[in-house]
Amino acid sequence: MYQLAPLIARAVDLLEKVGASSGGMRARLAAAGAKLFGGLILKPSEEELRWAERILRNIANMLNKAGVQFGVLKDEPYSGALLYELGFVDEFADYAREVYRYFKEHGVEEVITVDPHTHHVLEKVYPEFVDGFDIKVVSYMDLVKPTKANVSKVVIHDSCLYARYLDRYDVYRRMLDSVGVVHVEDPYVTGKAYSGCCGGPIESVKPDVAKEVAKIRVRQLARLSDVVITVCPICYVNLSRAGGNIKIFDLAEVIS
Amino acid sequence: MLDALAEVDKCARCGFCEAVCPTYNALRMRHYGPRGRLRMARAALADSSVSSLVLESLATCLRCRACELVCPASIRIVDVIMEARRRLYEDPRRVRRRA
Fold this sequence. Notes:
The complex is a heterodimer.
Chain A: H1 5-17, H2 24-41, H3 46-65, H4 81-86, H5 89-105, E1 110-113, H6 116-129, E2 136-139, E3 153-157, H7 160-165, H8 171-178, E4 182-183, H9 187-190, H10 207-222, E5 227-230, H11 233-241, E6 247-250, H12 251-254
Helix pairs in contact in A: 1-2, 1-11, 10-11
Chain B: H1 4-8, H2 16-20, H3 22-27, H4 34-46, E1 50-51, H5 52-59, H6 66-70, H7 77-90, E2 95-96
Parallel strand pairs in B: 1-2
């Protein structure tokens, strides 16, 4: 999903500019325009593409260092998480069966995930919709052993999925502890129950509301530190849209 | 199997969920919070046609589950919203446009 994040950022900006939140003709025109000219107008910059590549290369390096043997599919299929999360369940079910078929054709027995949306749908949702789903799903966070960090004091913006669906709230905290990074905590800002969502899941439905949610979240986080760590590409994109005097980094940008 | 209507009817309308809901806190509109969304879900599950506000309400849930962790009745709020949303998307003609 990291490869998709720069494109999502462009698409959401476009949706916001054309007033997609109010629906109607303007939103329909934007959708038609994106279909026709999406390859041109949604093309991410070199810098944005390098950001995604840097994160994925760092994760691959950490996996290699930990002695994990893995490969990368040439045409890695998207998990379909967005379809499920936006409520298009029947379409998701068809798509998931296709992805499973593709995995089986390529002899995949285990998938290492690098983002919470992919991990959640593969581990928790695919078994509900794909008969006989038997692929093991493991997060890179469970495999790597970072030895250094390039930040010293941060605040963590939790992924709702990692914290409240996948029971990984402590996993990335322990990783930061292991490399001596101080993470400032406040139960009403970073607690498991109270850590706020970034607004990202509705950025394609109501980009203006998503941005408002992100602005509130950025204000809360900025009270604790001006360095914010995200663990999800969607959180990174949506919090980045909110502005504010903070620096946002993905976890895999600051540890190695 | 989720009995979505039974889940909706567990709601005592205490409003604890609204304190933690990101969309409610951003807009301060009841149909943008979990308590309001449960009422909207009831309409989507039980009524033959619904206002477009119902669609707006259900489609903007972030599924972040913050509300579920503070709900005294342990309502499966996100699952109810997902089920109601699925039923609406099955037949979008049920949604009345606002004048």
